[in-house]
Write a structure and sequence with these properties.
Layout: E1 3-4, E2 13-14, H1 46-72, H2 77-92, H3 104-122, H4 129-162, E3 168-173, H5 177-188, E4 194-200, H6 219-225, E5 230-233, H7 240-248, E6 256-259, E7 275-278, E8 281-285, H8 296-328, E9 334-340, E10 346-352, H9 375-383, H10 390-396, E11 400-402, H11 409-418, E12 431-433, H12 447-459, H13 463-482, E13 514-520, H14 527-535, E14 542-548, H15 555-565, E15 569-573, H16 579-589, E16 594-597, E17 602-603, H17 608-616, E18 623-631, H18 635-644, H19 647-650, E19 662-664, E20 671-673, H20 674-679, H21 691-701, E21 706-717, H22 722-742, H23 753-767, H24 772-792, H25 800-827, H26 841-846
Parallel strand pairs: 3-4, 3-5, 5-6, 11-12, 13-14, 13-16, 14-15, 18-21
Antiparallel strand pairs: 1-2, 6-8, 7-8, 9-10, 16-20, 17-21, 19-21
Helix pairs in contact: 1-2, 1-4, 2-3, 2-4, 3-4, 8-10, 18-25, 22-25, 23-24, 23-25, 24-25
Length: 848
């Protein structure tokens, strides 16, 4: 008999029973059931939960009004604006949401912040000094009254819960030790407002304080039969994947779901507004299913408004395409096909016909290179204009603009049985475009990844997310139209290339040998520390190649001293003094199987190389990289490091702040198989900046994947002055234009954010003399976001001066990048810069 681990109970059980943390039952058996009707019903319902936010909002509104009356004697325009902004911030920050544990002390910082931030926003808008003083005087009074009102409201709510006037019937899924402890807590502490009615699990336990109402798979039936308003998942006999499937099946139920996090005893519970503590047991409230969110109904309204605007605008295009389809091949204009929509319902999807008439479209998987494509069909597919008639499907309600792409019944029945969670995609309406499609998951791509992306979209749905997907779809279509697919112009021979040098690699097999490449120029102050961290690696089979870019200081001398002491170190010279040339010189001289690039002003932990090689050895990855943690030595440097580690500063550049392993588009200071790096032609020597991003892009275009592992931590010395930081990002912005013109498909929406911001500032500046208020409103959103981001990241910028420099660091990187982008665009004169060819002298050496 195979035994499995029972984390807290320490009990071995048969392998057909899953024992989670806190479960003490040793054997599986049919559950002891209690009749559902035996459990009484409660008059308190979901309406009470919805009433609590109204009580809190009313309390805050009365407190704000009283504060204005006490300080100003009347409610002027400024007071109304201030109160409205405060209420809006409180609502957005979740201050009115229903909480199980009501503790005013925990909320004081956020409440005070919501009361003071609107004052900062009003300062530049209030010209009347008397009005300004009234609002300023009202803020401390408002803070005291709001806190007092909250204290009274919380006390009243707790009292009502204790008397079962605001209680909710609660079902506990799981019947282990944690679940039993939780039941005792809820029975003893009625101020939480949860009235436990029973357990749900798949084993026998006669010592439960409440009845066992059934098995986990009967959750939907129990919810409907027992009038359950709250469900708490507290571990049980079912595995987590099974629980996910069961909970997704209950998405339409008007039930709030909370989860006790695994290993909460070790402090693993997250810290967020969705976490409550029930007498020392944390519970995380799951996000409401998209179909039950209040904003879901806006999705259909949004679809109708957009389609009503698009259909008249695209009518001439419809007519032109219809004529093209009609005159390029015989047959109907529209292609109609049965697809599976929301809830498994069959819908008829419309497309412009792109193939000659055939009868195998319902069972043929991919026709990307089908010889039956018509002349106009190839263009329609590349531009995605063949999907345009699906606007009619959206108007009819069969589809949405954004959602999981619909599939044919023949394949759905097959994928449901083969691919985990594939059927869960059909919980919401299917869409013309989706989260998976904008990540390139279309055609012959991984169905498991598509299902994962589609379900992630559903679980985290928001109207703003739909807008982002539509915008990225539009840019993706433009990239497809602008791109010209061509084979690689440079083919680098694979093999061993032995260059003369002082390094003695005897005793190291090439299968184990790693070439560490360090491009350096004027790095006398850092190169020693960098080499120390590399030579201290646990992986001893190293070849360390430092390529000096014509340094004016003692960088080359320092490296030579290390080479004399350690034969693994080699020094190469690069008279052109640009990084891609250094990389290609090292790539030509590399004798190892793997190449790890390290920056000269960086340091790595002892297991860095071994961890990278362990990933590459699987053969699954074309490149591996880690998190680049900035190090600041001056106040400005610490502010810059904090800004570069913030999402507000660097967007979704995962390698600056990521915390879990994932597939990414770009890695910093990557580790690659030498053969792969040579096969794509090395680094592009025409690029002074962004050469690593362009290299990774070509790597992905060649079919390789990039892995980000946060365990690979790179301690990297960032710029130490705002002036140098501005110059760095200014060069990045200019260089990005060259990369985009060379590879149009590489552009992402985040690349256009900073240029768009600079353009908006320029427009605001132009409008300042004629429309100062409008000009101010255009700048205000960024100013507010800058303030919030600076406060949120202030802890990372150690020291008061660094904290004060943080907003300037954010502003510098955004403004410099945007200005550099526009300068690069204007200097190019609108002409296409460069070609796909990577023509470098160093690559001649690589190819022999």
């Amino acid at each position: 008999m195979t035994l499995v681990w029972a984390p807290l109970a320490g009990t071995a059980v048969p392998d057909d029973t899953y024992i989670g943390p806190g479960l003490e039952v040793a054997a599986a058996a049919p559950p002891r059931r209690a009749p559902i009707d035996a459990v009484g019903r409660s008059d308190a319902g979901i309406g009470w939960r919805r009433a609590v936010p109204v009580v809190l909002a009313g309390s805050d509104l009365l407190a704000l009004g009283a504060a204005m009356q006490l300080t100003a004697g009347h409610l002027g325009g400024a007071a109304w604006i201030y109160a409205s902004l405060v209420l809006a911030l409180l609502a957005v920050g979740g201050a009115f949401r229903h909480r199980l544990s009501l503790r005013l002390a925990d909320e004081i910082p956020s409440l005070v912040g919501c009361l003071t931030l609107p004052l900062v926003a009003l300062l530049p808008l209030l010209e009347d000094r008397s009005e300004l003083l009234e609002v300023v005087h009202a803020v401390p009074v408002a803070a005291l009254l709001v806190l007092a009102g909250r204290a009274v409201s919380y006390a009243a709510i707790r009292a009502a819960r204790a008397r079962h006037r605001l209680s909710e019937r609660t079902l506990i899924v799981g019947a282990g030790r944690v679940a039993v402890d939780l039941a005792h807590v809820l029975l003893t502490h009625r101020e939480y407002g949860l009235m436990p009615v029973g357990f749900l699990d798949g084993f026998r336990n006669d010592g439960l304080p409440l009845p066992l109402l059934g098995d986990v798979h009967e959750l939907d039936q129990v919810l409907r039969g027992s009038n359950i308003q709250t469900v708490i998942i507290a571990f049980g006999s079912r595995r987590d994947p099974d629980m996910v499937k069961v909970l997704r099946a209950c998405d339409r139920a008007e039930t709030n779901v909370h989860v006790v996090p695994r290993f909460f005893e070790l402090g693993a519970a997250p810290q967020s507004k969705n976490v409550d503590s029930l007498w020392g047991i944390p519970v995380v409230q799951l996000r409401r299913a998209a179909l039950r969110s209040r904003t879901w109904r806006l999705k259909r309204i949004f679809d109708l408004v957009v389609v009503s605007l698009l259909l008249p605008v695209t009518a001439p295009l419809f007519a032109l395409i219809a004529l093209g389809v009609r005159f390029t091949s015989p047959g109907p204009i529209f292609f109609r096909q049965k697809r599976v929509g929301q809830g498994g319902r069959l819908i008829e999807v419309l497309k412009f016909r792109t193939l000659h008439v055939n009868d195998d479209s319902d069972t043929t998987w991919s026709v990307t290179d089908d010889y039956r494509q018509t002349v106009i069909g190839r263009f329609l597919r590349k531009s995605s204009l063949d999907e345009l008639p699906q606007l009619i499907n959206v108007l009819r309600g069969d589809m949405s603009l954004v959602g999981p792409r619909p599939e044919r019944p023949h394949f759905v029945s097959r994928f449901d049985a083969e691919i985990p969670a594939y059927e869960a995609r059909h919980r919401v309406p299917v869409g013309m475009t989706g989260w998976a499609q904008i990540h390139g998951l279309r055609g012959d791509t991984s169905l498991e990844e598509r299902a994962r992306f589609d379900n992630n979209y559903i679980e985290n749905w928001s109207l703003w997310g739909d807008l982002v997907i539509l915008a990225r779809t539009f840019t993706a279509v433009l990239r497809d139209l602008a791109s010209k697919r061509r084979p690689a112009d440079v083919a680098v021979a694979e093999g061993e290339h032995h260059e003369p040098g002082s390094g003695d690699m005897t005793g190291f097999a090439r299968e184990d040998l790693v070439t560490v490449v360090i491009p350096a120029r004027n790095e006398e102050g850092f190169i020693g520390r960098c080499l120390e961290s590399v030579l201290a690696q646990s992986h001893r089979a190293l070849e360390v190649i430092v390529v000096d870019g014509d340094s004016a200081d003692r960088t080359a001398d320092v490296v030579s001293e290390y080479a004399e002491d350690d034969p693994r170190v080699r020094l190469l010279r690069n008279e052109r003094a640009i990084i891609p040339v250094s990389m290609n010189l090292a790539l030509a001289a590399a004798r190892g199987k793997w190449l790890v690039r390290i920056d000269a002003h960086a340091a790595i932990p002892p297991d860095y190389v071994s961890t990278a090689v362990s990933h590459l050895s699987t053969g699954e990855w074309g490149g591996v990289g880690g998190r680049k943690d900035g190090v600041g030595q001056t106040p400005s440097g610490r502010a810059i490091a904090a800004a570069m580690g913030s999402r507000f500063g660097v967007g979704n550049s995962t390698y600056h702040y990521g915390t879990h392993i994932q597939v990414v588009e770009h890695i910093p200071f990557g580790a690659y198989p030498v053969s792969v790096a040579r096969s794509i032609g090395g680094w592009n020597e025409e690029l002074r900046v962004n050469q690593d991003f362009e290299f990774d892009y070509r790597l992905r275009q060649a079919g390789h994947k990039l892995l980000f592992d946060p365990a690979l931590v790179i301690r990297w010395h960032s710029r130490q002055s705002l002036r140098d930081f501005f110059g760095q990002y200014h060069r990045y912005g200019r260089g990005k234009v060259v990369v985009i013109r060379r590879h149009p498909r590489s552009v992402r929406l985040r690349h256009l954010m900073a240029p768009g911001l600079v353009l908006m500032w320029a427009v605001a500046l132009a409008l300042l003399p004629v429309a100062p208020i409008l000009s101010g409103l255009m700048v205000l959103p960024y100013a507010g976001a800058l303030s919030l981001a600076s406060m949120a990241n202030a802890r990372q910028a150690r020291g008061l001066v660094a904290k004060l420099c943080l907003p300037l660091a954010f502003l510098s990187m955004h403004a410099a990048w945007g200005i550099g982008f526009w300068q690069g665009l204007l200097r190019s004169g609108g002409n296409r810069v460069g070609t796909e060819r990577v023509d470098t002298s160093a690559q001649v050496a690589v190819s022999g």
